[in-house]
Amino acid sequence: MGATGEIIIGEEEIITTVHAIGVDVGYCGMLLSGKTFLRLVQAVKTWGEARGGTRTLVHVTTGTNLKATDRLMRASGAKCIGGGYVA
């Protein structure tokens, strides 16, 4: 679930915030779960843009496999800003 509103990351930015995106790797397998994750990130970005959002903030709370998470987030066009990613 996401929300769109103002946040102090940049002037006149409307940020769509995502607190959790979960894909069951055990059910989907590595390749399909990665593709599904990227599609979900794109869907959230599209949803936010339709509501006037200019960026999407994805909070990353995983404590495991951070390198794979970083690769996926960067593949979605996101940049790391500490503990989260902005796309």
Which descriptors would you attach to this protein?
five-stranded mixed beta sheet, 23% strand, single chain, alpha+beta, 3 helices, 87 residues, globular, 40% helix
How do the helices and strands line up, and which of them pair or pack?
Blueprint: E1 2-6, E2 14-18, H1 25-28, H2 30-50, E3 55-59, H3 66-75, E4 79-80, E5 84-86
Parallel strand pairs: 2-3
Antiparallel strand pairs: 1-2, 3-5, 4-5
Question: What's this entry about, in short?
Answer:
With 87 residues, this protein is α+β, with helices and mostly antiparallel strands. Helices cover 40% and strands 23% of the residues.
Question: Any overview of this molecule?
Answer:
This protein is of the alpha+beta class. The chain has one domain (2-86). It has 3 helices and 5 strands; from the N terminus they run E-E-H-H-E-H-E-E. It has helices spanning 25-28, 30-50, 66-75; strands spanning 2-6, 14-18, 55-59, 79-80, 84-86. A 5-stranded mixed β-sheet has the order 1-2-3-5-4, with helices on one face. Strand 4 and strand 5 form a beta hairpin.
